[in-house]
Amino acid sequence: MAIDYTYRVQIPHYAGQLARVATAIAEGDGLIGDVTTITLGREASIRE
Fold first, then answer.
1. pLDDT above 90: percentage of residues in the chain
2. Residue among 39, 31, 48, 35 at smallest CA distance from 13
3. Rounded mean pLDDT of 8-37?
4. In a domain, 37, yes or no
5. Residues 6+ apart with CB under 8 A from 35
6. What total number of domains does the chain contain?
7. Structural domain boundaries, residue 23
8. Chain segment 14-27, per-residue pLDDT in tens
9. Mean of the per-residue pLDDT values for the chain?
């Protein structure tokens, strides 16, 4: 039985950080459906 999760993450706003999150999800055999940007700031972004 599949279980869906929604994660809200705050990550540093510079190149490669979203890729690091996606890699961690993939290494745990997870799948990503959608990525929504909640806030974009100079220092960090919040994504769901």
1. 83
2. 39
3. 94
4. yes
5. 18, 47, 48
6. 1
7. 9-47
8. 899 999 999 999 99
9. 93
Is 1 a member of any domain? no
* Domain membership flag for residue 4: no
The answer to whether residue 26 sits within a structural domain is yes
Residue 17 to residues 6, 41, 48, Cα–Cα distance (Å): 18, 14, 14
In this prediction the pTM is: 0.80
Q: Which helix (H) or strand (E) holds 24?
A: helix 17-27
pLDDT at residue 1 above 90?
no
- Lookup: tokens for 38: 């909640």
Alpha-carbon torsion angle 43, 20, 8, 42, nearest 10: 10
Are the C-beta atoms of residues 2 and 43 closer than 8 Å to each other? no
Handedness of CA 30, 14, 9, 40 (dihedral sign): negative
